[in-house]
Specification:
This protein has 590 residues and is mainly beta. The protein has five domains: 299 residues, no CATH class; 31 residues, no CATH class; 42 residues, no CATH class; 80 residues, no CATH class; 83 residues, no CATH class. It has ten helices and 31 strands. Strand 9 and strand 10 form a beta hairpin.
């Protein structure tokens, strides 16, 4: 893998992401549309995808199973060749080199331990599976594969599909190399991407991808020197991920800013990047291919990491680089926030189960699983999320108080949350007098009173609110009989004033006014009393013992002449009058 330079900001990552756990998953997608030819021309107007030196063929191996059976017959002429089991293509641990058994050798598989030696660092695992196309050209092979680009003068395919020792340390000197199928003493592997495009996205970085296998895995100081189109150079450290895992095939990605490849954009669509792998002590190394692409093989993501002063920063980098600097990796393809990291209070659960606040950066708080309060001192942070909840139990209708999260409280029927940190104790959701509709009073919890649209008086009894919580004394129309005119009249009065103040035949109409006089009218009729006729209401006639005729004027009624024996005033002396007399037998009341 490539150390892309800790602390360096590369801008926003490419928006097109391909999750990979194996390099071949990416390669298979591309191979479906790639014709393995010396140069593949870009379609007019197509946006830049990649330019690749060498082909995706698993270092030239076909099946990774048996030599001379669908595979090249490799030359086992090393000094320890007699120790090998003929036809057994295994890694240094004696396991199959094609670990998943799928297609060509890819990241996670192994280069074969051709001389079956595990005791020597500098051994004879030489191989040369290069095609003629990969070695042709004036400068270390000029075979390229492109998509969305046109090759102008790229080179470096001759460094692929072959065992490489740039300084000849494989056998003390290149003179001892047992096979000519081996690149020894030819300098460091050098890949040059020289091309042009018709379209590209200048807001996105580019990615230097390569797949390599390292036989000894003992040189973490190896690196890659990148020279941009402007002539500036940057040395990036080559970080291996499996020290001692002999022949392990790996993939790596280095992020390259767009402007370092396309220095003249947009006036010029020409792109350039040189990548030289610096391996001062490398005895055995091999490349399957190297490419400059709009997609990463090993996707970088946002890293939040501390500097030497323990201040935290955001940068785009691969996960391994992030972890190497003590950072927190947020995931492949995850963009960094445009500002921050922010400093603030972080609510964290302690060993005893309590929650306390610590001052830290937001990404550190997130890693610890805390609740972050940006730009807020711990003295102002309330870390308790639970609070008192008053709710009605849906099973039995009872009202309860319990500590819970607000999100849980609001899902309960008729609930009321009293805030984070509130307790279900004195002063919180206590009982009190509840005036419901201002006509009745009950003792209940505040939330129950609120649910019934009542007016709550905390810690008071119904007797404490007597006169406040009851039927209000309001005025209304009081209809009565005027004794002087024997006609209906009306005054405004409370109900008690109307009914208890001596009015004749009072009737109270709460909330109505006397302007509606019709409410006081009663049907009039002729009332015969002792031979006389009086036009009045029925209750008046009954009160004086008269005989009332509804809605009949006196002119239409003949009231019988007074007859002392006619006790019922019907104009006739009958047995009814006799019974009236017998019923009144005895002393007369004064």
């Amino acid at each position: 893998m490539i150390d892309c330079g800790a602390g360096r900001r590369y801008g926003q990552e490419n928006s097109k992401r391909l999750p990979l756990d194996k390099e071949y998953g990416y390669a298979k997608m591309l191979m479906s549309s790639v014709v393995l030819a010396a140069t593949i021309s870009s379609a007019t107007g197509q946006s830049f995808d990649y330019i690749r030196l060498g082909d995706i063929d698993g270092f030239g191996y076909v099946t990774g199973t048996s030599p001379c059976v669908g595979e090249p017959c490799w030359n086992f002429n090393g000094p320890w060749a007699s120790d090998c089991v003929p036809g057994a293509l295994e890694n240094s641990a004696g396991a199959p080199i094609n670990v998943d058994g799928a297609s060509v050798l890819t990241a996670g598989d192994y280069l074969p331990d051709l001389d079956c030696d595990t005791g020597y660092t500098y051994n004879s695992d030489e191989f040369d599976n290069r095609t003629t196309a990969e070695t042709s050209g004036p400068a270390q092979g000029d075979y390229t594969e492109v998509s969305g680009a046109a090759d102008l003068g790229s080179s470096g395919s001759g460094w692929t599909d072959v065992a490489v020792s740039g300084v000849g340390w494989g056998w003390d000197s290149c003179n001892l190399v047992p096979s000519t199928g081996y690149v020894c003493g030819s300098g460091q592997p050098n890949f040059i991407f020289d091309f042009e495009v018709t379209a590209a996205d200048p807001t996105q970085p580019l990615f230097l991808n390569f797949v390599f296998g390292d036989y000894d895995q003992t040189n973490p100081s190896d690196g890659v020197m990148i020279t941009s189109s402007t002539g500036s150079s940057t040395l990036l450290t080559l970080t291996v991920d499996a020290i001692g895992d002999d022949g392990k095939i790996q993939m790596a990605t280095a992020v390259v800013p767009f402007a370092e490849v396309f220095s003249g954009w947009p006036a010029s669509k020409a792109g350039y990047l040189a990548a030289q792998f610096v391996m001062p002590d490398e005895p055995m190394l091999a490349f399957d291919y190297a490419e400059l692409s709009a997609l990463p093989l090993y996707p970088p993501g946002c890293c939040c990491y501390p500097d030497v002063q323990n201040y935290w920063h955001y940068d785009i980098m691969p996960e391994a680089d992030c972890l190497a600097v003590g950072g927190i990796y947020m995931g492949d393809g995850v963009a960094c926030p445009t500002s921050g990291p922010d400093w603030g209070g972080c609510c964290l659960e302690q060993a005893d189960g309590s929650i306390d606040c610590e001052m830290t950066f937001d990404c550190k708080c997130a890693e610890l699983g805390g609740e972050f309060h940006a730009l807020t001192d711990c003295s102002e942070v309330v870390c308790v999320s639970e609070g008192c909840c008053c709710y009605q139990d849906p099973s039995d209708g009872s009202w309860n108080l319990d500590l819970m999260e607000e999100a849980d409280c609001v899902t309960l029927p008729m609930s009321m949350f009293y805030g984070a940190g509130s307790e279900c104790g004195e002063g919180i959701a206590q009982e009190g007098a509840c005036c419901i509709g201002m006509i009745s009073c009950e003792i209940m919890l505040q939330c129950e009173c609120n649910a019934q649209m009542g007016v709550f008086f905390p810690a008071l009894t119904c007797s404490d609110v007597d006169g406040i919580c009851g039927i209000p004394e309001i005025n209304g129309a009081c209809c009565y009989l005027d004794s002087s005119t024997l006609m209906a009249d009306c005054v405004h009065a409370t109900e008690s004033e109307c009914l208890e103040s001596g009015y004749i035949f009072p009737v109270w109409h709460g909330g109505l006014t006397c302007s509606s006089l019709l409410i006081c009218e009663r049907p009039l009729g002729a009332c015969c009393f002792h031979g006389n006729c009086l036009l009045t209401r029925e209750e008046v006639c009954d009160g004086i013992g008269g005989n009332w005729h509804e809605s009949t004027p006196c002119s239409m009624v003949i009231c019988p002449v007074s007859c002392p024996a006619d006790f019922d005033f019907d104009g006739f002396v009958t047995v009814d009058d006799l019974m009236e007399l017998i019923g009144s037998w005895g002393p007369c009341s004064p």
